[in-house]
Amino acid sequence: MDRDASLPLDRRLRQEILFARERVYHFAQPTPLERLELPELDIWVKREDLSPIKAYKWRGACNRMAVLTDDERASGVVTASAGNHAQGVALAARQLGIQARIYMPRSTPRVKQDAVRKLGGDLVQIILSGDSYDEAVSGAKDDAESTGAVYVHAYDDLQVMAGQGTLADEVVLSGHGPFDVAFLQIGGGGMAAGVAEWLRTYWPDIQLIGVEGEGQASMKLAIESGEPTPLAQLDIFCDGTAVRQAGSLPFEICKQHLDRVETVTNAEVIRAIRCLWEGLRCVSEPSGAMGLAAALKCREQLAGKRVLVILCGANVDFLQLGHIAASEGAANMRTRTIRVRIPERPGTMLQLLDTCFAGLTITDFQYGKVDDDAAWPIFTVSSEDPETLAGLDGRLDKGDFEWTDLAGAIDVRFRAIPLRSDLLAHPLFLRLDFYERSGALHDFLDQRVRDRANLCYFNYRQSGERIGRALIGLDFASEQLREEFVAELPPHGDGYRLCEPLPSDSAARLTGRPE
């Protein structure tokens, strides 16, 4: 319902946010605003992750459905969503007694489907349609056209935008303002538009910065192009903001109020997720941390300013947490991935670790023997000190090592570790669980392996646990030397918790040799 379509869009939106004030709190309560303690920064976080659906989307969905006429309610509603908006529609459907059909991509995790069913009960029907959000939207709109149901758009709707704007009203009324800068993440733009309109109304001098992922900057493209334009490619790591084309109504508001659009990388988002965990003990979904990611990226410009960021959601898939935690973006340290050429003879790997890698943390180590004369191990190393990491080049060059930077190498990312079994004489593969402390892995190799065998295989990636786990291959000159090594090797020792040979069938599969 648009009370006066003759008014400019910004005035209509302000008017509707005022009316939304009365409606949305029949469905849920305001969310808190908390200060995030960070050195030299004054950042406040709007905790939309503490809403009934763990995201802000309930506001727009509930506001839109609350103004449906009796005939529209009887016809039911239909929408498309991959998660948060669907939960908002389900919440409103149950409280208002409205039948809702929700189209979701077939790839939608079951945890999100279950959340929608729990919120909506028997009033909600989930229809899995297509493999992407765009395909789900197409199915939902076809449904609405053929059945007469009301299509509830996730962002390109005045009432939806107004509902999202109520979170800005809570910020204004919190007493913690005025804010100098606000970072507003953008998917289709509904939240950014509603919040920007309200904050600009009460704090005219506030700097409003839109935030998008580098691979999903549809609003930035729209502003540059002068109209909403579809992206050719779409990164979906920040799935809550993965929208191929900005909404038409949000675009009109955002181009008027945003001072600029900042883009962030997935690694920067992951670091922000970690920052929120360490500072507020909350787990954000990737899209929810984008605003903070941009603030941290621009921290030098924020000295002495009061900054608002919005934790817009916490509906992260449990299985995705492992990827986030293991990613190099989660570390506070800088990292590099390089391949080094060393002679294929006993002791050279340890010599490399003792010299060039001194003072660095090895977070990933991949190696498989593919040549009798030379080895090309791949290391990902990190350090809190950028000078120590930068000095690696000089140390490698001084040692006359041939090396290559492998940043972004796809075979490294997917851990494609080659190994030629025909070059192995008497191999032994070990599972090693060692304590993640400085020197533990080095000490094991130095004390147990040096000068006794050639390292022919190594597969290790830091997981963030206190225990590191590696799969190691050693090649011996004779069967007798291998048997003596196994006989003398204690299963537990200084610096490691477990070391045991792989069963023969596992070793055979690894090398491709028949048992």
Brief overview:
Belongs to the serine/threonine dehydratase family. The protein has 515 residues and is of the alpha/beta class.
Main features:
single chain; 515 residues; alpha/beta; Rossmann fold; Biosynthetic Threonine Deaminase, domain 3; 3 domains; nine-stranded antiparallel β-sheet; six-stranded mixed β-sheet; 20 helices; elongated; lyase; amino-acid biosynthesis; pyridoxal phosphate
Explain this structure:
The protein has helices at residues 9-24, 58-66, 70-75, 84-96, 110-120, 133-147, 158-173, 190-202, 218-225, 248-257, 266-280, 290-297, 318-326, 348-355, 386-390, 392-398, 410-413, 440-449, 479-488, 504-511; strands spanning 33-38, 41-47, 77-80, 100-104, 124-128, 150-151, 181-185, 207-213, 260-264, 306-311, 334-343, 361-368, 374-375, 378-383, 402-405, 426-435, 454-461, 467-476, 496-501. The protein has 3 domains: 10-54 and 158-328, Rossmann fold (3-Layer(aba) Sandwich), CATH 3.40.50.1100; 59-151, Rossmann fold (3-Layer(aba) Sandwich), CATH 3.40.50.1100; 334-511, Biosynthetic Threonine Deaminase, Domain 3 (Biosynthetic Threonine Deaminase, domain 3). Helix 4 runs parallel beside helix 5. It is built from 20 helices and 19 strands. A hairpin with a 2-residue loop joins strand 1 (33-38) and strand 2. It has 515 residues and is an alpha/beta fold. The chain is elongated and about 90 Å long. Strands 11, 12, 13, 14, 15, 16, 17, 18 and 19 form a 9-stranded antiparallel beta sheet that branches. The protein has a 6-stranded mixed beta sheet with strand order 1-2-10-7-8-9, sandwiched between helices.
